[in-house]
Amino acid sequence: MLVAFSVTPIGVSESVGDIVADAVRVVRDSGLPNRTDAMFTTIEGEWDEVMAVVKQAVDVVAAQAPRVSLSLKADIRPGVVDALHEKVAHVERRLAEQ
């Protein structure tokens, strides 16, 4: 499965980048395939392992902020591997054809 999520500390200073970096560090340390962009971090793996990483990332942020906002989107597709890269590669191939 793929899970794209964004965790935002609320009730702290205007700049939240340092706290968000702590959450991204949890994801990267998990060893699961992942990618971070300006809006979301996407993780690929099995349900239990991915959700455990999301929880850990939220817990790291919650330890530093009185309130946390979590947005999450999941693509649950059993048997598919490397969807993190293949979904984008498919779109790029189609764009190159036109």
What does this structure look like?
- This protein is about 45% helix and about 25% strand.
- With about 100 residues, the chain is α+β, with helices and mostly antiparallel strands.
- α1 packs antiparallel against α2 (about 45-60).
- It comes from Winogradskya humida.
- This is UPF0045 protein.
- Belongs to the UPF0045 family.
Could you write a compact summary of the structure shown?
The protein is of the alpha+beta class and about 100 residues long. It has helices at about 15-30, 45-60, 85-95; strands at about 1-10, 35, 40-45, 65-75.
End-to-end separation: 30 Å
Q: The biggest beta sheet, please? A: 4 strands, antiparallel
Range of strand content: 25-35%
In DSSP terms, counting alpha (H) and pi (I) runs of 4 or more, how many helices?
3
Over the alpha carbons, how many angstroms does the gyration radius reach?
A: 15 Å
Would you tell me the structural class of the helices and strands? alpha+beta
Low-confidence stretches: none
In spatial order, strands of the major sheet run 2-3-1-4
Shape: globular
Helix content bin: 40-55%
Quick check: average pLDDT?
94
Number of strands: 4
Oligomer status: single chain
List the keywords.
single chain; about 100 residues; 3 helices; alpha+beta; four-stranded antiparallel sheet; globular; 4 strands
Layout of strands and helices, then pairs:
Blueprint: E1 2-10, H1 17-29, E2 34-36, E3 41-44, H2 47-62, E4 67-75, H3 83-97
Helix pairs in contact: 1-2
